[in-house]
């Protein structure tokens, strides 16, 4: 037993001290390190080249919309990263002595089996391609997808990332996107309702508001067309509601609506137009003798 143990120990020591072994390990380590360094350089250079290509396309008369270009650019950069990482992994396994050809040969069979088991993943990828090439929405658009609403930060092969105005980031699988509302394709409409007391002269109020709207021409670059006074919208119990609309750039209607309310409020205050406020009228019925008798009898 001791002789076998000593022989085994001697063989291990001889293999450990073998110069060829350490040379092979060193060469393999350098190759692996070079693979990762070159992969990082290729990804960085490739992303810069893609960005440069789309920057040159911006000066071309045949260019597409900026939204579509930004989306396709991010998609190409993502595909480049995955492709380089896959090639680097194959080269890494090859340097470790793994039979890569056998892995690649079996990848088709495994891929077929995975395809049946990962139908949702395939659906996500196919839907992602249709979203991009049909230009349903793009990076930077303000959209509503199901219960999530916000700005599109990223459209990937599998998921879409939407950031809400309060800061939450929602990761949505592309395959679950059935209906999309895109607020960034066409101009928005700012709707402002102004409440005026019944005691005021409606014609005078409308004339003041109309003059104010004409004076705002060119003041706000977000307004596409001059604001329009539609007239009396509602006769409420204690107020008359006058509606004003303005066509704005996409997703700028909320800002313009706030500015219009401020401008109209200052104008009405300047001319002494009263804004209605809740009122309570108390009616006291005089007590009669018969009423007192009924009360006592009850």
TrEMBL record:
Database matches in InterPro entries = LSM_dom_sf, MS_channel_1st, MS_channel_C, MscS_beta-dom_sf, MscS_channel_2nd, MscS_channel_C_sf, MscS_channel_TM-2, YbiO_bact
Main localization (coarse): membrane
Q: Which UniProt keywords apply?
A: Cell membrane, Membrane, Transmembrane, Transmembrane helix
What topology does the record note for this protein and the membrane?
Multi-pass membrane protein
Question: Residue ranges of the Mechanosensitive ion channel transmembrane helices 2/3 domain?
Answer: 79-119
* Role summary: May play a role in resistance to osmotic downshock.
Q: What is this protein called?
A: Small conductance mechanosensitive channel
